[in-house]
Write a structure and sequence with these properties.
single chain, alpha+beta, Beta-Lactamase, 4 domains, six-stranded antiparallel beta sheet, six-stranded mixed beta sheet, 19 helices, 22 strands, Biofilm_reg_signaling, Nucleotide_cyclase
Length: 596
Amino acid sequence: MSHRHPDPPDLEALQESESRLRALVDGGPALIWTSGTDGQCDWFNRVWLAFTGRTLEEERGYGWTAGVHPDDLGRCVETYTQAFERREPFSMDYRLRHHSGEYRWIQDDGQPRYSPHGEFLGYIGHCLDITRRKHAETINRLHGQVLQQVLDRAALPEILDSIARGIEHLLDDCWASIELLETDGRHLHLGAAPGLPQGFRRVCQRIPVGEGNGACGTAAALGRRVIAADIATHPHWQDFRQDALREGIAACWSEPVFDSRGQVIATFAIYRPSPGQPDAAEIQTVEAFSNLTRLAIEQCRQQQRLVLSDTVFHAAGDAIFVTDGSGRILDVNPAFTALTGHRREAVLGQDPSLLKSGRHGPEVYAALWRALRETGEWQGELWSRRRDGSLFAAHTVIRAVPGSDGEDRRYVVVLSDITERLALEARLEHSASHDPLTDLPNRAVFQDRLQQAMAHCDRQPEQQVAVLFMDLDGFKTVNDRYGHAAGDRLLVAAGRGISACLRQGDTLARLGGDEFAGILVDLEGPEAVRPILERILTACRGVLQSGPGAEALSVSIGVTFYPQDAPVDTDDLLRQADNAMYRAKQAGRDRYCLHT
């Protein structure tokens, strides 16, 4: 790399190029900055200055750091200085103060700049406002957290507290409260308000439902959003005004929360210390959190119903049918028809076997009848079939009811639909064991399956297992040149291509980044793996079209086998395959190497 100073003509050309570049980026949507060789920022485009509301002189040097959120400042400066020292590109997210006073999330991507002669000139940074994306990520993360809390049977106040804290983290300078409608429909009681001033929390403990009873009481009564931009003058706050103003609360808006039938079940309120209207983004965020609140309330109430379902006559909302001693249906309730699709008249006198799904073997029903004979009760999960052929899962409670003579038994069967709960559990279990981008098994599943394959080989010494460690060649170039979205598409395509080369019973997992690992089972010798490896190399050989240019791609593969002469565990095998993969890269990439 040359380190000479540019000639005057070169300097003039460089300055002219810089001027054209700055004129160009001044008209774009991105916040752009540049720094010199000393690491201090020397220029910001008009978009940056309009965003921050500060002058170029104020931002120069390290003045721009005054606008970075205090919680992000240390990490932000450290990322920049480390990249600068190494002359490496960087990408970081941090909160930057908008001219309105609000902090907004920024994605800052920096690149070193060089002259035509290779001289280091400093850095240029390209920044985008990603506040909406960050909000969406937080909402999605909180959504998953709430679903997990529901599955873990957490108390409703605990779940609502998580939701309220989540929106207080998202929206600047606010407090949140969730009020639950009482069964009488005439009052709201406080469900959660973690940040609300203590003096005003006492006011919110119980609020009458009705127009004029603050934002929440009015929203619950009218069934629509109520905004009090200035509590000091808003007519709905006459009875609560002094308490609110004394605690520093100047504005409020409340969103009604509806259940799946469209009935108000709660209100979701945001309080602010200064007067003002919410903007469209804030309203959209509150609507999303209101939906999350509805989910939490309904799921918790559904769980409460499941707990009560072991007492048959207290579960009238669940499907119930009654049979005689021989199992013939005597009666069903309306919920039975709603759940199964069978009309009452059509099933009277029929055997309950018409509900059988075919998923359970005879041993399940034998155990069921044995429990009924010995204890008079059985409960468990059963899959059943509706009239239209679709399947549903039910927590099933069967109780024997003695007749008047003590001999003629009847059986009361209660079916509580848990299909959605099981589906939710299955989705959560799948997401915990699979890579979210490629939907391939993750490292934990890979380790478990490799242990199983090794145990099988120990029982069947004539069989071998091959462990593959794969790394995409050229992936970093694609990621740097075309962006993370193109890189993600490449990873998904690579996962699909490699999976198509494997046999039934084999496993492909994504370990992270552009690293994949495979398990090939039931091999009769090392030679049996070569055709599979050739197919993988061919599948990954290709071109990614992702812009004005194209990048040739391939994969390097390392392979090891089990069993071996010396004892090894799963980590040893993966390490051997990893080392073999690096030898494949050193040998020219786009090939495989066997561990020796």
